[in-house]
């Protein structure tokens, strides 16, 4: 059974570091929501295991449009999803919107916190304050939506280590269940002069504070209290099916033995007019195993070697022998039947992934 992702590309303000597709032109919201309905109606699926509404900033849309969207989803999806997530920013998620989310079965809210230091937030171009974060978490808990994730950013150039760790230590005391901790990524020209400057990472310190506070790492950037991992995102890393609706959304489905990816390319207006491009990519069975390995290594549990060998009739022994350098460098290890990154190897995920891509296609 596939999962459903819906992309809402609107933002009140474009953050200085953000490389995701979004626009600040909110006057097209109603037309865009109608276009979402158009594509939902075209879908042959009526059951979704998990649902995720992301962006952009989905919480910027009006209460009326939010209710219309959620009502449409509830009419189409004939089952109760295992998880229903909604992305929000602290300043735009009102009590009224939280109530609507609760009424339509949203079970998890992911907040774009990034920092609890107002100076850091201003530096990044965020328009919320730390008070907004405390207030909205209280609203969510009072309303009874049980799961809360907070996004946190670290390794930000020009930002002192103490500011990041202070945010983290304050964050874990709040009534939340999940933290997504991302190191700063140079996706725009903002601070590009620091891109090639060596900077000591706070990865281990961030990981340590979270683990000590009961947030257990299950994926390279994701930490959860017991039972609160993101079921939707796990489907991406385990290469399971999902449908993406909206501009810049991606889908992955299976057609027989082939793995098919679709990407909606264009802008908001082209999507509204149904003139956007849908780019299709087919991954044959023999090429799927390397994707399973590369994505699976993001998870702490890694990938099961025996299962991969049986699924793809592939000689994993020879492939593992060719990974000798990665084992020697302490980046990979075998735990039981699983191939996993070591604690040290987590620092070099991108390098390991590229090494494996190159090795597979030698």
Summary, kept brief:
By secondary structure, the chain is α/β, with parallel strands linked by helices. Helices cover 37% and strands 22% of the residues.
CATH class of the largest domain: Alpha Beta
Please state the average pLDDT score. Answer: 91
Number of strands: 15
The helix count comes to 14
CATH topology of the largest domain: pyruvate-formate lyase- activating enzyme
Uncertain ranges: none
CATH superfamily grouping of the largest domain: tm_1862 like domain
Taking all Cα atoms into account, the compactness measure Rg is 21 Å
Spatial order of the strands forming the largest sheet: 7-8-6-5-4-3-2-1-9
The portion of residues forming beta strands comes to 15-25%
Overall SS class? alpha/beta
Overall body shape: globular
Helix % is 25-40%
Order of helices and strands: EHEHEHEHHEHEHEEHEEEHEHEHHHEEH
The major pleated sheet works out as: 9 strands, mixed
Distance between the termini: 35 Å
Would you identify the CATH architecture of the largest domain? Alpha-Beta Horseshoe
Number of domains: 2
What this model shows, in words?
The chain has helices spanning 29-42, 63-76, 95-103, 118-124, 130-143, 161-171, 203-212, 231-237, 268-272, 285-296, 305-312, 316-322, 324-328, 349-360, and strands spanning 3-8, 50-55, 83-88, 108-114, 147-154, 178-183, 216-219, 222-224, 242-245, 250-255, 258-265, 277-283, 303-304, 332-335, 338-341. The strands form three sheets. It has a nine-stranded mixed β-sheet with strand order 7-8-6-5-4-3-2-1-9, with helices on both faces. The chain has a three-stranded antiparallel β-sheet with strand order 10-11-12. The protein has 362 residues and is of the alpha/beta class. The chain has two domains: 3-235, pyruvate-formate lyase- activating enzyme, CATH 3.80.30; 287-362, Arc Repressor Mutant, subunit A, CATH 1.10.10.920.
């Amino acid at each position: 059974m596939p999962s459903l992702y819906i992309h809402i590309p609107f933002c009140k303000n474009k953050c200085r570091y953000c490389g995701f597709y979004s626009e600040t032109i909110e006057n097209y919201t109603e037309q865009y929501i109608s276009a979402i309905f158009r594509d939902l109606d075209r879908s042959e699926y009526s059951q979704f295991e998990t649902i995720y509404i992301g962006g952009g900033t989905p919480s910027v849309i009006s209460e009326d449009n939010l209710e219309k969207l959620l009502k449409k989803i509830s009419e189409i999806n004939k089952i109760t999803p295992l998880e229903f997530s909604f992305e929000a920013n602290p300043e735009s998620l009102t009590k009224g919107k939280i109530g609507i989310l609760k009424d339509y079965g949203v079970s998890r809210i992911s907040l774009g916190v990034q920092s609890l230091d107002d100076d850091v937030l201003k530096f990044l171009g965020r328009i919320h304050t730390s008070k907004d974060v405390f207030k909205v978490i209280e609203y969510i808990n009072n309303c009874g939506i049980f799961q809360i994730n907070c996004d946190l950013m670290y390794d930000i150039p020009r930002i002192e280590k103490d500011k990041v760790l202070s945010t983290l230590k304050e964050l874990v005391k709040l009534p939340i269940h999940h933290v997504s901790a991302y190191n700063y990524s140079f996706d725009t020209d903002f601070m590009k002069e620091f891109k090639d400057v060596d900077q000591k990472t706070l990865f281990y310190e961030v990981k340590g504070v979270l683990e000590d506070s009961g947030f257990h790492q299950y994926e390279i950037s994701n930490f959860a209290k017991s039972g609160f991992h993101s079921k939707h995102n796990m489907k991406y890393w385990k290469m399971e099916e999902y449908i993406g609706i909206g501009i810049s959304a991606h889908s992955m489905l299976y057609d027989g033995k082939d793995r098919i990816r679709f990407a909606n390319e264009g802008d908001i207006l082209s999507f509204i007019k149904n003139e956007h491009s849908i780019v299709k990519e087919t991954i044959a069975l023999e090429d799927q195993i390397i994707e399973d390995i590369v994505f699976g290594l993001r998870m702490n549990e890694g990938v099961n070697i025996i299962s991969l060998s049986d699924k793809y009739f592939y000689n994993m022994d020879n492939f593992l022998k060719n990974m000798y350098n990665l084992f020697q460098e302490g980046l990979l290890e075998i735990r039981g039947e699983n191939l996993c990154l070591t604690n040290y190897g987590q620092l070099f995920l991108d390098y390991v992934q590229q090494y494996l891509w190159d090795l597979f296609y030698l």
